[in-house]
Amino acid sequence: MLDILRSSPLFSIRRLGFALLLTVFVLVTDVLFIRFMDIQSTADFVYETVINTLGAYGGFSIMALFNKPNTSR
Q1: Residues 3-10: contacts with CB within 8 Å, 24+ apart?
Q2: Of 2, 31, 35, 65, which has the maximum CB count within 10 A?
Q3: Position 51 pLDDT exceeds 90
Q4: Can you give the residue ranges of every domain in the chain?
Q5: What is the DSSP string of 10-56?
Q6: pLDDT at residue 50, rounded to an integer
């Protein structure tokens, strides 16, 4: 899956969707089990989801920018 994310174009809906799913999974796990972040309302959850999704999307985009093509194929 990460190879697909690295080789996709700079602005990718696939990368954004993956970042959103990853962020929602981590935040739901935190809210239900860990309680590391103090998320108490739906507005807090949406705010944290947006901020963390943009951060993950930016990280995946930087990985895509510096991806070296695999020439062994």
Answers
A1: 5/60, 5/63, 5/64, 6/60, 6/63, 6/64, 6/67, 7/64, 7/67, 7/69, 8/64, 9/64, 10/61, 10/64, 10/65
A2: 31
A3: yes
A4: 2-65
A5: SS-HHHHHHHHHHHHHHHHHIIIII--S---SHHHHHHHHHHHHHHH
A6: 96
Contacts of 18 (CB under 8 A, 6+ apart): 1, 5, 60
What is the model's pLDDT at position 42? 92
**Angstrom distance (rounded) from CA 16 to CA 65:** 15
- In this structure, which amino acid lies at residue 63? M
The 8-class DSSP code of residue 69 comes to P
Q: Two tokens at 23?
A: 């962020």
Whether 53 has a pLDDT exceeding 90, the answer reads yes
